[in-house]
Write a structure and sequence with these properties.
alpha/beta, Aldehyde Dehydrogenase, Chain A, domain 1, Aldehyde Dehydrogenase, Chain A, domain 2, binds 2-aminohexanedioic acid
């Protein structure tokens, strides 16, 4: 059942083939006999063309009044709303997560696009006083120029929108390099932006590998800022590529997020949260709750209930409304997950459910893996320390809140964490002590909203935040403006 749908790059307002003349296949992870489409296997020349188009378009776009830029984004958000169902279906086919979740992914893009459209009438700076008479001081936001955006496959539309929309509203132009596993959703998003009236060159899309497209993009002399979401390992390379020319660089990398459950928690709610946080999106979220730390008084009861719920999850093709957990993104990812299961077993963790690929019938056509729980984990073992990016949760016992916090913070990452408790003192103590960029009380570690800053500490990020007005701080620079209307030379710090 092969379709010959060939999708193109979008450069300078036109859909064009890559200079290499080559394409790559995008397969459905739930059924790898289904070809989603052929996509351009681009190279250096395509990056150069896209960066040149973005540079060319920059001046007119930056001088377009921000409310007008906002109107275009508003139209794009409306188009996304109208097409939500079709876009979600395309996304489930190329990425695998269940339809309910891909609808959520498109919704996140809609939310971000409306949010940033509204920013077109704000983009607030400050007015302030001067130490000298008849002098006025203010700050304004200036765009940076061409932004290179490199996005992952797990949120194929939401994450590109987190980067494109704030970049555009601030007056930048962009070149997007989407993940090779999910280029269709990026094509769909860029098509919407084209129809909404984004001028030629302001948004460019180049598909292909990280090595052939991502690397030259982050090194390109005309690119002033790079925003990357992906692994900590690649993030480090992005940071190094940006350093020699001082490109601004926003990195959103790994996570090893924790749910902490205290004896005084609503246990059923905590179990439900751990199931959604650990196995939602098949565990393929940087915010996934891959560790659960449980206080001893409820440890056994929690574990029994958690395993029971995980065993009952229906794994399959995400287009089937009865399915709760889709496949992994590709065979390489499945092998990674499998190897971590072996590591966990060898480290002495107790495998309580799952731990194996699913086979037989339709399972043989996809990259399916059973929801997996390890109990009685030592917090220091590799499966409790390293990001797996799959449906594997390590459960760790603890004595009290202090110990839970110590274990929770005892990792290299700092994206998201959560505490289940009915005690307000415990909640506020953990809120203060957790070293993560996102913290939840009585909710799992996933599900951030677009009007709050998104990002993490330690090896998760490099100090920037996406979403909310925090994103504007990355995609613009402050310009401090002094207007002297005294009609004479006034010297700051001297003519006091
Ligand atoms: C990611 O996994 O890279 O907070 C992003 C969440 C989603 C975004 C996750 N809104 O889980």
């Amino acid at each position: 059942m092969k379709s010959l749908n060939t999708l193109k790059n979008y450069i300078n307002g036109e859909w064009v083939e890559s200079s290499t003349g080559e394409t790559f296949e995008n397969l459905n992870p739930a059924n790898h006999r289904e070809l989603i489409g052929l996509f351009q296997k681009s190279g250096l020349q395509d990056v150069n063309k896209a960066a040149a188009a973005a540079r060319q378009a920059f001046k007119a776009w930056k001088n377009t009044p921000p409310p007008k830029r906002g109107e275009i984004l508003y139209r794009a958000a409306t188009l996304l709303q109208q097409r939500k169902e079709a876009l979600a279906r395309d996304m489930t086919r190329e990425m695998g997560k269940v339809l309910e979740e891909t609808r959520g992914d498109v919704q996140e893009a809609i939310d971000m696009t409306f949010y940033m459209a509204g920013e077109g009438r704000r983009l607030f700076g400050q007015t302030t006083t001067s130490e000298l008479p008849n002098k006025f001081c203010m700050t304004i936001r200036s765009p940076l120029g061409v932004c290179g955006l490199i996005t992952p496959w797990n949120f194929p539309m939401a994450i590109p929108s987190w980067k494109i929309m704030p970049a555009l509203i601030c007056g930048n132009t962009v070149v997007l390099k989407p993940a090779t596993d999910t280029p269709l959703s990026s094509c769909n998003l860029v098509q919407v932006l084209e129809e909404a009236g984004v001028p030629a060159g302001a948004v460019n899309l180049v598909t292909g590998t990280g090595g052939a497209v991502g690397a030259p993009l982050m090194q390109h002399a005309d690119v002033r800022a790079v925003s990357f979401t992906g692994s900590t390992e690649i993030g480090r390379a992005v940071s190094q590529a940006c350093a020699p020319s001082f490109k601004h660089c926003c990195l959103e990398m790994g996570g090893k997020n924790v749910i902490m459950v205290l004896d005084d928690a609503n246990l059923e709610l905590a179990v439900e949260g751990a199931v959604w946080g650990g196995f939602g999106t098949t565990g393929q979220r940087c915010t996934a709750a891959s560790r659960v730390v449980v206080q001893k008084g409820v440890y056994k009861a929690f574990l029994n209930r958690f395993v029971e719920r995980a065993r009952a999850l229906k794994v399959g093709n995400g287009l089937d409304p009865a399915v709760q957990v889709g496949p992994l993104i590709n065979e390489a990812q499945r092998q990674t997950v499998e190897s971590y299961v072996e590591i966990g077993k060898n480290e002495g963790a107790r495998l309580l459910c799952g731990g194996e690929r699913l086979t037989g019938g339709d399972y043989d056509q996809g990259w399916f893996f059973a929801p997996t729980i390890f109990g009685d984990c030592d917090p220091q073992i590799r499966i409790a320390q390293e990001e797996i990016f799959g449906p594997v949760v390590s459960v760790i016992p603890c004595d009290n809140l202090d110990q839970a916090i110590e274990i929770g913070n005892g990792i290299a990452y700092g994206l998201s964490s959560s505490l289940y408790t009915r005690n307000v003192n415990n909640a506020f103590t953990a809120m203060r002590e957790m070293e993560t960029g996102i913290f939840y009380v009585n909710a799992p570690t996933i599900g951030a909203e677009t009007h709050l800053p998104f990002g993490g500490t330690k090896q998760t990020g490099n100090g920037h935040r996406e979403a909310a007005t925090a994103a504007l701080d990355f995609y613009s620079e402050w310009k401090s403006v002094y207007v002297d209307y005294s009609d004479k030379l006034q010297r700051a710090q001297i003519d006091t």
